[in-house]
Amino acid sequence: MKASHERRCGFGRLPGFWRVAWFAGALAWAAAGGAAPTDPAAAASAAAAAPSSAVRADGDKPTAPAATLRLLNREVITLRAELAGASPEVRVERALERLRGLPDSAIDTPLKVIPFTLGEARGVQFLLGDQLLFSVLRGDVDAESGQSFDELVRQTRVRAEEVRQAWHQSQDRALLLRGLLGVVAAAGVLALMIWLVYRGGRRLVDWLEAVRDRLAANNTHVDWREFLARLAARTVQLVQWFVLLLMGYVWLRFVLGSFVVSAPIADQLGGWLWRKLAWVGQGLLEGLPGLASIVIVLTVTRAIVDVLGYFFDAIQKGRLKVPMMHPETIAATRRIVTLIAWGLGVAVAYPFLPGASSEAFKGLSVLFGLMLTLGSTGIATQAMSGLVVVYARALRRGDFVQVNGVEGVVTEVASLATKIVNIRNEEITIPNSVLISNPIHNFSKLSGQQGTLVSTRVTIGYDAPWRQVQALLVGAAVRTPGVRADPAPFVYQRALSDFYVEYELFASIDRPLERVPILSALHGHIQDLFNEHGVQIMSPHFLSQPESPVVVPRSFWHAPPAAPDSSANGPGR
Asked: What is the CATH class of 448-556?
């Protein structure tokens, strides 16, 4: 029965075109590399193989890369030795040429193995009937596998018979039709599964995005479920694509396994997937101790940072007094200590990170180090300047200052720059290096509970009683909105010039940002009061000596609104 089947479906009954087509297909797969063999002893391919310089026991010494003979995507043998000057690759090409030149009836002839000797080369020849296929030398044995020459010959014979059996099966039209029907059915199932996965994933993503939008519509506070919904939506999309790729992979393996010629490729695809999954699983298992160590180190670091944060909060709120620590510098000190703590924690945890000792991690470390070296010079300068500003306590948030011609209220003292809002409601950013290289005029630093001092100067001629002038200036300050009654405004006589006396009025305000509007209102009230009492603000300049001395008669020394006992300058007088 077997013999009749072979005669009915044998190689000799088919036209020469089909025989050449099948062998050409096998040669094309071999030339393209086919699929990577899974047998460690046959890892070499016809395209490239690691040369071996080991000297054989019989004197054969391979001088060229090994080459593998494949038929119908099945590995027959890997040739490693030279024969009569022909390299293993040439031997494989000659074997394929002989197979293409076989007559139609040769495929059904018995397979013979005959010993031979050619010079120093010894081995066996594989024949189909009287037609030579290829030779196997003792030098073709892989020395590292521990396989003997007789075992290699038996293995090659078994594989050759498998190729001949696969050839007969590939000519069976019933098997071919069954494989085509299976491929069509698998394609239909794949299309249905793709549609179901896509539709199901799309509906789930739409639902999650609707939940996200509903949570994001609440503007009163941030709901963390919104971020979870966003993460879940993206995760569903990734899983959806992974499932689609996996179904395509399974379908491709099924299609390749439905035909005798491509069945070995399907087996290799399945083995590749399982090897990759095993590799990933093994990596996860090997990385678990390191990941657990990282979690422990980071947890301990977080606990230490929390304790330090509680300590600094207590100092900042005044519940704890520590020498050389001031509330103004606590925020910066807390950031520095927290950064150092996390830096030490990451340094301790880094060696436990899977792959930390790999060349990729080392390359990234060198790259980041180079980037920091080249780009951190200016940043380091600004950061150190920021520390000087903070620890010198030159200014803080809410102070009214004047720096480098900029006058306004400090809104932020950061590590790299300080932000000031001026009277025009403009936010001005001053780098900390510029800040420490210029004088800082802080109008709020020493105000304490008395507010911020503002001052203005006027020059009045000697014919106006100084007591009256002082009383007019103080009265103008009292009338001005925004000027504090306590402490009371006061006046100093700053200079006795040639033609006039220079007076300076000092007053306290609570809103430093409104310093300019308050000064403007104060100037208006000064003009009104001086006009009401007939005191000339314009300072006189004489072109010639007046006929009578420019003095104030004693009867006018206490002219209104001066108090009768007003006889000296100073705060509160």
From this structure: alpha beta
